[in-house]
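The records we work with from here on pair a chain with its fold. Here is one such record, which you should read through line by line:
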Amino acid sequence: MLTLSKQAILAALQRISERNPEPLPDALTDALLARDLIQRVGKHLEPTQFGKSYCRAASTLRWRW
């Protein structure tokens, strides 16, 4: 199975949210679908509730020194 880093997931979700015309690779799309982070809506992809939550959680993380 494809292993995705947090950065790769966030970048893919951002591309989907912005409705970037450049398609994601099939393996990446399948991995995000399997993790319930995106859904197909008509002919395009959108972040699910979990995908949006993942982005919010990742953006609130702060490095602690």
User: Anything to note?
Assistant: The chain has a mean pLDDT of 87.
